[in-house]
Amino acid sequence: MIRELHEKLVKREITSVKLTQDYFDAIEKKDSEILAYLTLTKELAMEQAKFVDEKINKGEKIGLLEGIPGAIKDCICVDGIRTTAASKILDDYVAPYDATVIKKLKGAGAVILGKTNLDEFAMGSSTENSAYQITKNPIDTARVPGGSSGGSIAAVAADEAVWALGSDTGGSIRLPAAYCGIVGLKPTYGRVSRNGLIAMASSFDQISPTAKTVEDVAIVLSAIAGEDKKDATSAQSADKKYEDYLTGDIKGKIIGIPKEYMTGLAGEVKEIFEKSVEKFKTLGAKVEEISLPHVEYALATYYVIVTSEVSSNLARFDGIKYGLRVDDKHDSNVAENGLPKTLLETYLDTRKTGLGSEVKRRIMLGTYALSAGYYDAYYLKAQKVRALIRRDLEQAFSKVDFIYSPTAPETAFKIGERSSDPLKMYLADIYTITANLAGVPAISFPIGKIEKMPIGGQLMGKWFDEEGILNAAYTYEIN
Ligand code: GLN
């Protein structure tokens, strides 16, 4: 899609201003129902689009992403634009700088339409944890789009953006991509700079691209990837054009299927998955059963470490440094007893008012896991299991090129169905979190439908082998 739009721009069959306006018209028409966007950035978008059109008019060469409109998850900072992370505590926060990925996208001439909805601070699997609105699945608006990047995914799936950025800490780009029938890629930890991403769990978070096709995802990844001095965890890597690696040939590649993932799988999802395995075989791949002996502990490990990192990362939202401050319910800085409020009371009142219940739940769990008496039993133990899971993957990848499974054990669930049961909600991530625990790249792409609801397949790749999984998913997609 991006390539076709690019050709049209170059041949002057359309202008970027017209294209951008078309997308704003689509947003105007559909978004009152889908609720994908929190903030529109029309002025910025039009300025970027005009600039690209002028370049084209002057006969200058333009890049593939230049003049093509996309959307940004609202936990990624865009200079001068309200950035809420879908939390009341950042309700009026205006980012004072561009995240590195935004700087890169602006440099590549991409057009930014607006900021999209998410679960508060990216904690969730359905986008129901947003403090503002519940984004709908564009295929069936009674269902969730998945989360936490539900706004970005729904915007693309509903043709309210060509591409989008989300973030993926435990599956947040892949799960909604699967639920809405599009493509989402979580890069290797360190492939994309986290500078300017509002942190959820720093040793897991990765900014992640989504779009309708594998090639489009590759094009966006090419624009945002690379080493960044502002993120010490970003890896040294040369700039690459990931789209150039899409050969459509996976003959001889070995795909491993973890037997542990197959035990819980049932019904139509299983059937569709098995059919997709057959398709990979006909495309020339070899399929083998493998074992990841420690993945049964992945979910527990993830939720201990993630909540610990959450409790630490979110300590900064205290009413003093950013966003909301609840100084006082009584119009002055005086507590109920008539005495001046203490700093602690300001912290407590601000956090009580500004943070939602899932965020509070995780801060409490994480604080508990990190506390002196329980650190060894929970946090340290979980870190050890994380190392074992990573070792499982190292061993598997010494034998196979990719690890394949469904993205989720079921299709998108109904809005409200799981919101009162956090444990059930956490189970949606069963297949996705392993990639984040180990830091490997993973992609979700459509492999079938149950009635009209899409099913995603997930390929995990070796560390820094984004081109490998992109090409495998691409080969699947075009055949
Ligand atoms: N659903 C997972 C969680 O709630 C993953 C979220 C994410 O990837 N940001 O932690």
What does this structure look like?
Strand 2, helix 4 and strand 3 (111-116) form a beta-alpha-beta unit. Helix 2 runs antiparallel to helix 3, helix 10 (298-313) crosses helix 12 and helix 10 (298-313) packs across helix 13. With 479 residues, the chain is an alpha/beta fold. The protein has a domain at 2-245: Amidase signature (AS) domain (Amidase signature (AS) enzymes, Alpha-Beta Complex). The protein has helices spanning 2-10, 16-34, 42-57, 100-107, 150-157, 174-180, 214-224, 259-262, 267-282, 298-313, 343-354, 357-370, 376-397, 422-426, 433-438, 466-478, and strands spanning 37-40, 69-73, 111-116, 163-168, 183-186, 206-211, 254-258, 286-290, 402-406, 442-450, 453-461. The protein has 16 helices and eleven strands. Strands 1-3-2-4-6-5-10-11-9-7-8 form an eleven-stranded mixed β-sheet, sandwiched between helices. It starts with a helix and ends with a helix. The chain is globular, with a radius of gyration of 22 Å. The chain binds glutamine.
